[in-house]
Structure formats: structure tokens, C-alpha cells
Specification:
Layout (H helix, E strand, L loop, with lengths): L1 H43 L2 H10 L14 H19 L25 H6 L20 E6 L5 H10 L6 H11 L8 E6 L4 H8 L6
Antiparallel strand pairs: 1-2
Length: 210
């Protein structure tokens, strides 16, 4: 009875081992066929299709003729190309010809003077015409009108438009510093182009004389 059970166990083990071996063989064949199909599909792709696929994966397609570099080799190559380019573009300055000094006469001749000519010469007094008095420079006077309800910003803008001041913003800052927002008087004022902010502020904060 014990021997029979032993033989039955050995037979069952051999059958199970054969089945497992068969399953492993089938799985290996299926794996090799799938790899072969993938290789064949890749081989059938055109160059344009491969480039499009590489671009979609943020990669670049290279051929067997392209040179591949590591990051350190690429940096070294770029430095070498930069130094070679600078060496080609830099040219030595051309030597300038030395300035030729003018030749000086060995014995310069003195001018000959005639005593008789000196006696005949009569020195005439030089008369200079009186210079015309310079006319005073005319200043550009502008009649500037401040209307009722005009604020500091409006007055500054009108001053800039009239050409009296160069910058309305600068005049606004000067007016705020003097606190003239409520001191501006209505009326017509004679102002000059380029007049100082202080002078303009002094005039428009007082009632006009006319």
C-alpha cells in the first residue's frame, strides 16, 4: 500500500511538472512573438513618422551618422568653437605710417626792408565804427486766464498748453507744496514763457490788478 501511494505521488508530480513546463514554453513563445511584432512595426515606419513620434515625446531623431556627445563634451566643444571664432575675427591693427616732418630751411632769409619806404609811410589812425546798442531780448508774454471753478490740476494743464511751463505735473507738485488749492484767484494774468513756478504761484494767488 505504501509503495502504491509513492508511485501515484511520483506520477502525479511528473504530470504537474510536464504541464507547468508546457505553460512556460507557450508563454515564452508568445512574448518573443510580441517583441518581434513591435520590431517589425517600428521597421515599417517611415522617417517622417519616426520624427513625428519623437517630437510628440519631446525627443529628437538621430541617424547613425550624427555625432553624440555627453553634456561635458558638448560644453567643451562649444567653448572651443567660440575661441576659434574669436581668433578669426580679431585682426591685428595695421601699422600707421609715421608722420613725415616738414623740412626746415637751413638758412631762413630775413625780409629786406627799405628805409625810404618807412619814411614815406604815414600811419593813419584807425577809426572804429560805434557798435549799435544791443536791443533787449523780447520776452514772450502770454495773457493767461483763470476761470471760476478751475482747480490746481486744470490751471497746471492750461499753463502747459500755453507753453508757460514745461510740465503740468511738476507745477502741480509745486502748488501742493505751497497749498494753493483754495488760494487760486479768478482773473487774467500776464505771464511769461519759462517763468518760475514761484513767480506764477505768487501772481495767481493774488487778485489781478486789472
Amino acid at each position: 500500500m505504501d509503495k502504491r501511494s509513492l508511485w501515484i505521488g511520483i506520477g502525479s508530480g511528473m504530470i504537474v511538472g510536464a504541464v507547468l513546463l508546457q505553460l512556460a514554453t507557450v508563454g515564452q513563445n508568445a512574448l518573443s512573438e510580441s517583441n518581434l511584432d513591435a520590431d517589425q512595426a517600428t521597421a515599417n515606419l517611415t522617417k517622417e513618422q519616426l520624427e513625428a513620434a519623437a517630437k510628440s515625446m519631446d525627443m529628437r531623431l538621430v541617424t547613425s551618422d550624427d555625432e553624440l556627445y555627453t553634456e561635458a563634451e558638448w560644453v567643451a566643444k562649444k567653448k572651443q568653437e567660440s575661441s576659434e571664432l574669436q581668433g578669426k575675427t580679431a585682426t591685428a591693427p595695421e601699422a600707421t605710417e609715421s608722420a613725415v616732418k616738414p623740412e626746415q630751411p637751413d638758412n631762413p632769409k630775413q625780409p629786406v626792408t627799405n628805409d625810404s619806404d618807412k619814411q614815406n609811410e604815414v600811419n593813419q589812425p584807425k577809426t572804429s565804427e560805434p557798435s549799435a546798442p544791443s536791443s533787449p531780448k523780447a520776452t514772450d508774454t502770454v495773457s493767461f486766464k483763470v476761470r471760476s471753478g478751475n482747480s490746481l490740476a486744470i490751471v497746471a494743464g492750461n499753463l502747459e498748453k500755453a507753453g508757460i511751463v514745461d510740465s503740468a505735473q511738476a507745477f502741480i507738485q509745486a502748488g501742493r507744496a505751497e497749498r494753493i488749492n483754495t488760494k487760486i484767484q479768478v482773473g487774467t494774468y500776464d505771464l511769461q514763457k519759462g517763468e518760475s513756478f514761484k513767480s506764477i504761484i505768487a501772481k495767481i494767488t493774488k487778485e489781478p490788478s486789472s
